[in-house]
Every structure is written in C-alpha cells, then in structure tokens.
TrEMBL record:
Source organism phylogeny: Bacteria, Bacillati, Actinomycetota, Actinomycetes, Kitasatosporales
Domain HTH cro/C1-type: 29-81
Designated name of the protein: Helix-turn-helix transcriptional regulator
GO MF term set: DNA binding
Organism superkingdom: Bacteria
Signal peptide residues on this chain, from the entry's feature table: none
Source organism of this protein record: Streptomyces malaysiensis subsp. samsunensis
Length: 282
C-alpha cells in the first residue's frame, strides 16, 4: 500500500469537485473551490476522522467496500477507480467480479432525472445509489448495512416494503428475479459477494431455495409496481431498467403515465421535500 500517494490522490480528487456537481450548495464562505472533507465523508458514508487519516497518510488498509464508496463519492473514472484500488493494496475488482463502480456519467444521468425516482443496482440486486425522489418513494435504505441494501435479501426475508403486490405478482417477481440472479452467476462465477448472497438466501428462505433449484436463467428488464406511500397514498408506476455499457449496473427509473392520477400523486410526492442525493456507504 502506498499511503502517501493514496493521500495525495484523495486530496486531489476532492479538490477538483465542485459542490454543485454533486448536488450541494456552493455557498459563499468557501476558501477553496473543491468539496470539504466533511462533505466527501457524508457522501461516502465514512467518518470525517477516518477520511482525514486517509488523506494524511495515517490510515492503512481501507476495505474494498470503503474504496468503492469513496470512488462513487469522488466520481472517479474507471481508470482512477482501478488506480485507487492499486494504491490501497487491492486488486482491481473488475478482474475477478462484477463492476460496481459508478462512473461520472452515471452520476450525471441520475442528476438529470431529479423529478423521477431513480435507483442504481448491481447485478446482485445490491442497491448502489438512490436519488432523493427514490428515497421519498421507497423509504431510506441507502444508509442501512450492506446486506439490508440488497433488494432480494429484503424481499425474501420479509423486511418492510412499500411495494404492494398480490400473491400472483409476488410469485412472478420472485421467478424473474431468481432467474436474473442465476444469469449473473453465469457471468461472474468468481464474484465472492454474489456467491455469498446466494448461499445465505438459500439458508434463510425456503421460497428462494425452491426457485433457485428450478434452474431458470433470464434477464429481468422491466415491470410495474404499486407503491403505498404513507403520506400521499398508492401509485402504480412503470419500472424501466437502463443498463450501463461496460458494466452490469442497472439504472431503474420509476415513471407514471402523463396526466394519470398516478402521475399527479408522484408530482405531489415531489413537493414534499427529501434528502439530497446519497451514495451507498458500503
């Protein structure tokens, strides 16, 4: 691990980001054009003290999950992401598993879709990022522990959800989702987090295990979901999945038919006010 070079790069990457580029107010009392250390720590879900020690070359051995969170917060390119891992003494995660890195382009797409709920998932259905509208629609999940940010883990273990579905709709979703997860294993047979998730799901959910043994393989692309929001009530939305070229990240956008009652309910939700954009703390 090259602590001094890692520290230099982290400071450089923080200084080059403007507050506006990550959805923050520029303010008038800034002494430098870049982000404050506290702001990067918040976006990455790490403590300010730990980030300070990294930037000063005093902290060693950051975990891959912390590096991924920092890379997203700092909006690193693919090459910069690989360099970050090398400096920290880790192999480039793309060499032996799925790509979970959010490029600056993906961040910009999410920023431009501020009026629609948007979430970003990896191929293992792990929640990578949300925008404020998605948090307002689905509830706060991005700050929860890593396992509880996995949508299939939440579903098959019965965690609270605002999604309302009939038994038939639940069965159809489970069949499609498990087939999609099996397809991911085919693409990434050596991805340790993916393998661990499947092993654990088979232990805790008989329904998942039964569907896993069916052996179906398919890509899950789009669906419709009814969301029961505690303030504005129910709405049925289209959930369209956009794939990111060069990775297995999926951008899921929730929309309603223009002029419909669902569109009006979604617009009402947009007026309530939510947190600013937050990336996964891993």
């Amino acid at each position: 691990m090259d602590r001094n070079e890692l520290a230099r790069c982290l400071r450089h990457w923080r200084d080059r980001l403007s507050p506006v580029s990550v959805g923050l107010s520029a303010g008038s009392l800034r002494r430098a054009p870049g982000l404050r250390r506290e702001e990067v720590a918040h976006l990455a879900g790490v403590s300010v003290d730990y980030l300070a020690r990294l930037e000063q070359g005093r902290a060693g051995n950051p975990s891959p999950s912390v590096l991924e969170a920092l890379a997203r917060a700092l909006r690193l390119t693919d090459d910069e992401n690989a360099h970050l891992f090398r400096l920290a003494g880790h192999a480039d995660p793309r060499t032996n598993g799925m790509t979970r890195h959010m490029t600056p382009g993906v961040h910009r797409i999410i920023d431009r879709l501020a009026d629609s709920p948007v979430i970003v998932l990896d191929a293992a259905w792990q929640l990578v990022a949300t925008n404020p509208m998605a948090t307002a629609l689905l509830g706060e999940m991005i700050s929860e522990p890593a396992r509880q940010r996995n949508l299939l883990w939440r579903h098959f273990t019965g965690m609270p959800s605002r999604v309302v579905a009939t038994p038939e709709e639940d069965a159809a979703f489970e069949t499609a989702a498990v087939a999609d997860l099996r397809a991911a294993v085919g693409r990434y047979p050596d991805d340790v987090p993916l393998r661990t998730l499947i092993t654990d799901l088979r232990k805790v959910s008989a329904r998942f295990d039964k569907r896993w043994q069916h052996g179906s393989v398919a890509r899950h692309m789009a669906t419709r979901k009814t969301i029961l929001h505690p303030q504005v009530g129910p709405m049925t939305l289209d959930c369209d999945v956009l794939t990111v070229e060069g990775s297995d990240l999926r951008i899921v956008v929730y929309t309603a038919e223009p002029g419909s009652s669902d569109a009006r309910t979604l617009s009402l939700l947009n007026t309530i006010g939510t947190q600013r954009f937050t990336a996964s703390p891993e």
